[in-house]
Amino acid sequence: MGRNGSGKTQAAAWFLSHARFDSMPYVIVDYKGDALLNQIPRLHELKVKARVPRSPGLYIVHPRPDQEAEVEELLWRIWERGRTGLYIDEAHMLPDKGAFRSLLTQGRSKRIPMITLAQRPAWINRFNFSEANFYCVFHLNDRRDHKIVEQFVPVDLEKPLPQYHSWWHDVDRYTTFLLRPVPDRETILQRFDDRVPKTWFGGKVRRELI
């Protein structure tokens, strides 16, 4: 969680670079066409109506804001498939209906790990907080967001954070500490390049249609 320019997207991309996309498919839902995410080597681009991939790898879908019904159907297909990682940028853009709530509440048992980003915690479903294993909280401008986050993370968000730093909270261990900035964009992209086999997808982005 964090305002625009706080460092949250770069941090989330760093966390994604450590995910198990070598053993299961990971689907990135990217509404805004983020520059860093779309530079990840050997991404496989999906249409919103595409089948859920079965092969390990990194996949990206770029829905429009007016495609709520199509996104809802995609999330249900992932819920039914299981064993698929999800990275969701701008979580407030998702349709707040049955599919996303089911993924949040049942995803652990269905082996659907999720990385969810939000610039306005007050705008997203409360299950995002109650079902989370970890929180990463960057600078937030609005005190309404502070009030919500402080119900789950034991920090005083009125205290200023150094640039690109964040509060990291481990729910199971009930441990909170200050997290320093993640590596730069080049290092993150290099980590993806090192981990994504050159043989995946013929070494280039391809599109998958129904």
Major beta-sheet overview? 6 strands, parallel
Low-confidence stretches: 202-210
The chain-level structural class is alpha/beta
Helical coverage, percent range: 25-40%
Q: Count of helices?
A: 6
Distance between the termini: 34 Å
Give an overview of the whole structure:
- With 210 residues, this protein is α/β, with parallel strands linked by helices.
- The chain has a domain at 8-132 and 188-208: 3-Layer(aba) Sandwich (Rossmann fold).
- 26% of the residues lie in helices and 17% in strands.
- The protein contains 6 helices and 9 strands; from the N terminus they run H-E-E-E-H-E-H-E-H-E-H-E-E-H-E.
- The strands form 2 sheets. The protein has a 6-stranded parallel β-sheet with strand order 5-4-1-3-2-9, covered by helices on one side. A 3-stranded antiparallel β-sheet has the order 6-7-8, with no helix packed on it.
- Strand 7 (166-170) and strand 8 form a beta hairpin.
